Prior knowledge:
Layout lengths: L1 H7 L9 H5 L2 H15 L9 H10 L1 E4 L5 H16 L6 E5 L2 E7 L5 H11 L2 H11 L2 E2 L5 E8 L12 E2 L6 E6 L10 E3 L8 H13 L5 E2 L2 H6 L5 E2 L7 E5 L4 E3 L7 E9 L9 E2 L12
Parallel strand pairs: 4-14
Antiparallel strand pairs: 1-11, 2-3, 3-5, 5-13, 6-9, 7-11, 7-13, 8-10, 8-12
Helix pairs in contact: 3-8, 5-6
Amino acid sequence: xxxxxxxxxxxxxxxxxxxxxxxxxxxxxxxxxxxxxxxxxxxxxxxxxxxxxxxxxxxxxxxxxxxxxxxxxxxxxxxxxxxxxxxxxxxxxxxxxxxxxxxxxxxxxxxxxxxxxxxxxxxxxxxxxxxxxxxxxxxxxxxxxxxxxxxxxxxxxxxxxxxxxxxxxxxxxxxxxxxxxxxxxxxxxxxxxxxxxxxxxxxxxxxxxxxxxxxxxxxxxxxxxxxxxxxxxxxxxxxxxxxxxxxxxxxxxxxxxxxxxxxxxxxxxxxxxxxxxxxxxxxxxxxxxx
Length: 290
């Protein structure tokens, strides 16, 4: 029982406790974690009033001109070169037929990292993420990565299925370094879906009693019952998008040779033992004994 309690108050997406889930444990975790985040007040910087209002109302916000076109070009050139360098550690994920190529900020050589840090350490990025999570986010905190998504032949992209990442509010931020069309597998988000609703909690309950341990897949019936409409993020390069990925989201299945390059930040603080601040992330794809 002690182990179950620790798991229930932990980060795991679901708890391996069939009886307690039938009694509503996962629903309770979802409601409690959401309330825990909302209890913490955080001042909204005046210059971020519009995007943060959008984020809290719709679950996403756009920053179309965060960096100048010249800076975006410089950042894109460096990110592309780093992605192609054999002497830099990378990670690769096969997402159905599609391929995600990634590089951690920590693995980028210092000179090139300074260029990319024009986004990752940008004061607006830091302030936006801090206000979104309602805690202090240090410059360089979160999972900072270069990500290249390549559309390939074969099985559909696993991320094309609409889903909710986990049982509590979390945030991801993308800076698109290439123009994004539907062929490139753009983000799709359902505005307002991050707000708790009875129909949503019924879905949470159903997934928990089914024994699923993954991100919760969202069916068409649930979307229709909540009268949600999708927002597809086709956009020009240089656009930054932040989204609460507790809300319903996924990717449009693209077409080869679709290809998009982004700088990415993911934040997922502990849902119950929320820290006062998040420090710089030091994740690496390099072997431990390197």
